[in-house]
């Protein structure tokens, strides 16, 4: 790429990068307050408007929360996949991509994630997965509990993979592909089938069998896709739009 084609970064973005670098350098943790505004203005040698734009950007990314009033100011937060999901949603909306795009992405990603999870899962993570499977079984008559545990199980598998990129991608996909948001419903017979699939995946993870875990996850996601295509093709064909859920 020619030097002349590079887009100069806004000062506010550069300052935001310096703020994050300083958070890491100081070893700040969630809940820590950053220096007061005057100290930050002196340190970064920018105007008040530029600094506040930088802080607002970091707030939108989930890095900071801005506490108003005396004793307030920027406080370190732990980012999650929400900002990634929002960015992906906007990109896909402008591509006029359907929700089917997300289902296809899950079919490609989640078996790989399950394979990694079988290799890296620890005892604490297995306990969490078992608790999710058991809770789903005990509340098969409650679709709200079912949906919550369905999402939690897949998040736990992604976290057990040991790969931060996959963890955030799966979290973002699940946020975007919220069943209640796109109108999918699960009759009890389908909930029972999902519970059995989760149990098979859990057992493969507990045995630390990558091939079995990947195959079980692939079958589970394929069954989900077939069910959605058969019962709710209009939901999968609907365009992805940025909404709050």
From TrEMBL:
Coiled coil: none annotated. Pfam families: FCD, GntR. Keywords: DNA-binding, Transcription, Transcription regulation. GO terms for molecular function: DNA binding; DNA-binding transcription factor activity. This is GntR family transcriptional regulator. It comes from the Bacteria. The keyword Iron-sulfur does not apply. SUPFAM superfamilies: GntR ligand-binding domain-like, Winged helix' DNA-binding domain. Residues 9-79 form the HTH gntR-type domain.
């Amino acid at each position: 790429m020619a030097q002349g084609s590079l887009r100069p970064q806004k000062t506010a973005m550069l300052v935001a990068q310096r703020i994050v670098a300083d958070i890491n350098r100081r070893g700040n943790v969630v809940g820590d307050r950053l220096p007061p505004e005057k100290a930050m203005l002196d340190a970064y040698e920018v105007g008040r408007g530029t600094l506040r734009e930088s802080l607002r950007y970091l707030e939108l990314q989930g890095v900071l929360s801005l506490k108003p009033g005396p004793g307030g100011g920027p406080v370190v937060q732990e980012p999650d996949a929400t900002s990634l999901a929002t960015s992906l949603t906007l990109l896909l909306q402008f591509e006029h991509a359907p929700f089917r795009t997300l289902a296809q992405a899950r079919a490609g990603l989640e078996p790989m994630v399950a394979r990694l999870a079988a290799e890296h899962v620890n005892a604490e993570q297995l306990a969490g997965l078992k608790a999710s499977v058991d809770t789903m079984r005990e509340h098969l008559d409650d679709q709200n509990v079912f949906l919550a545990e369905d999402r939690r199980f897949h998040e736990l598998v992604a976290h057990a993979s040991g790969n931060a990129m996959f963890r955030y991608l799966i979290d973002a996909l699940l946020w975007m592909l919220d069943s209640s948001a796109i109108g999918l419903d699960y009759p009890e017979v389908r909930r029972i089938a999902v519970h059995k699939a989760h149990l098979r995946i859990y057992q493969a993870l507990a045995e630390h069998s990558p091939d079995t875990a990947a195959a079980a996850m692939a079958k589970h996601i394929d069954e989900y896709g077939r069910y959605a295509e058969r019962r709710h093709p209009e939901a999968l064909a609907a365009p992805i739009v940025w909404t709050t859920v």
